[in-house]
Automatic annotation (TrEMBL):
<feature type="domain" description="Peptidase S33 tripeptidyl aminopeptidase-like C-terminal">
    <location>
        <begin position="204"/>
        <end position="262"/>
    </location>
</feature>
<keyword id="KW-0378">Hydrolase</keyword>
<dbReference type="Pfam" id="PF08386">
    <property type="entry name" value="Abhydrolase_4"/>
</dbReference>
<feature type="domain" description="AB hydrolase-1">
    <location>
        <begin position="21"/>
        <end position="135"/>
    </location>
</feature>
<dbReference type="GO" id="GO:0046503">
    <property type="term" value="P:glycerolipid catabolic process"/>
</dbReference>
<dbReference type="GO" id="GO:0004806">
    <property type="term" value="F:triacylglycerol lipase activity"/>
</dbReference>
<dbReference type="InterPro" id="IPR000073">
    <property type="entry name" value="AB_hydrolase_1"/>
</dbReference>
<dbReference type="InterPro" id="IPR013595">
    <property type="entry name" value="Pept_S33_TAP-like_C"/>
</dbReference>
<protein>
    <submittedName>
        <fullName>Alpha/beta hydrolase</fullName>
    </submittedName>
</protein>
<dbReference type="InterPro" id="IPR029058">
    <property type="entry name" value="AB_hydrolase_fold"/>
</dbReference>
<dbReference type="Pfam" id="PF00561">
    <property type="entry name" value="Abhydrolase_1"/>
</dbReference>
<dbReference type="InterPro" id="IPR050471">
    <property type="entry name" value="AB_hydrolase"/>
</dbReference>
<dbReference type="InterPro" id="IPR000639">
    <property type="entry name" value="Epox_hydrolase-like"/>
</dbReference>
């Protein structure tokens, strides 16, 4: 799995499958592996590109502050490096904020946009949670940190599955590429510093806004704001699942993504794409 030196860092990325390029951007506390449960369905139809955002996984974690625009710039430079001109683009949570910044800065690079568990700007409750998540690693170990974060990510039904949460916490503790404390702080500040509310009307590519009905971190109202602000955006609500529906309800999520992408194929074929 390769790395490339861009914008002053080593950026890790992974490419699997063949077909039209589909780029996936993970969110806070997550690296490229967060998409693993839906990868088999995606790589059967698309060339899937994943990366570790700066500060996560196997990418560099500089001490200096990060911004979402900067991380979108990392993605744009990566696409130039691997020689891909245009992609279908999906981002989850913070990754969806990066995706918004990418399509706003480089609309020519994005065929379609999928915003999962997303937002244009957080409200007071969301901002308080994210600020806490950025500060907390200085005061607790990773196990306790996960115990604090996960109730905002998964539903009661998921918590009720015997051993599920304990298994996820154990996986996080044993994961060989844990995030640095300063990276979580910088990512939290990047999230808090982002606001695309007044720019949404500039997004003109086909757009899917996808949210779990039981998402308490980025609730339905955030996705409704996006769908109302982005011209002709389609809003789909996953009935079972919260913010972490990529893990809790992967079949429903990938079905919605592939259905959206499938509806675009006839339009491309008419123009010889």
């Amino acid at each position: 799995m390769p790395k490339v030196q861009i914008n002053g860092i080593d950026l890790f990325y992974d490419i699997k499958g063949t077909g039209e390029p589909l780029l996936l951007i993970a969110g806070f506390l997550c690296d490229h592996a967060y998409w693993s449960l839906i990868m088999p369905s995606l790589v059967s139809q698309y060339q899937v590109i994943r990366l570790d955002n700066r500060g996560m996984g196997r990418s560099s974690a500089p001490e200096s502050p990060y911004s979402l625009k900067q991380m979108a710039g990392d993605v744009a430079t990566l696409l130039d490096h691997i020689g891909i001109n245009q992609v279908h683009l999906a981002g989850h949570s913070m990754g969806s904020q990066i995706a918004q910044e990418l399509v706003l800065a480089h609309p020519e690079k994005v065929k379609s946009l999928m915003l999962l568990s997303s937002l244009a700007k957080g409200d007071a409750l969301f901002n308080s949670i994210i600020e806490t998540w950025g500060d907390l690693p200085n005061n607790v170990d990773l196990k306790l940190y996960e115990k604090v974060v996960l109730p905002w990510i998964f539903t009661d039904a998921f918590y009720s599955i015997p051993g599920m949460i304990e298994g996820l916490i154990e996986f996080a503790i044993r994961y060989p590429f844990p995030p640095a404390t300063h990276s979580l702080y910088h990512h939290s500040q990047a999230i808090l510093g982002s606001d695309t509310t007044n720019l949404l009307q500039q997004i003109h590519c086909p757009t899917l806004v996808l949210v779990g009905k039981q998402d308490i971190l980025t609730p339905l109202k955030f996705s409704q704001q996006l769908a109302q602000g982005i011209p002709n955006a389609e809003l789909v609500v996953i009935e079972r699942g919260g913010h972490g529906f990529l893990i809790e309800s992967p079949d429903a999520v990938v079905s919605a993504m592939l259905n959206f992408l499938g509806k675009l194929k006839p339009a491309y074929s008419n123009f010889g794409f």
